[in-house]
Design goal:
Layout lengths: L2 E5 L2 E4 L4 E8 L6 E8 L5 E7 L5 E3 L7 E6 L4 E6 L8 E9 L8 E2 L3 E6 L1
Parallel strand pairs: 2-11
Antiparallel strand pairs: 1-3, 3-8, 4-5, 4-9, 5-6, 7-8, 9-10, 9-11
Length: 119
Amino acid sequence: QVQLVESGGGLVQAGGSLRLSCAASGRTFDNYAMGWFRQAPGKGREFVAEIRWSGAIYYADSVKGRFTISRDNAKNTVALEMNSLKPEETAGYYCNTGRGTITDPHAYWGQGTQVTVSS
């Protein structure tokens, strides 16, 4: 059974930093992309960042220059370093992994970790 477990969320002041981590288990993840989405209260799920098996990286425009995604294929982990956080980025952050791309309709999802940015 595939499991994705996120960690690292919490409360931070505006302008601060947090590092999220996600560990995947339950199958081999060769050729799987890994990434992060977020969902604020009352809003839809929003793409944040993706890292493909090839190492190609994509970011939402709103986080470029402030967030950094990385992965360790040997450990099946993905991390998201978030700097200069803004109050409007308060949300549940969800890790996911999909074959080829994180938009794979059969992608796996974690339970999420809460990030709260105070003003």
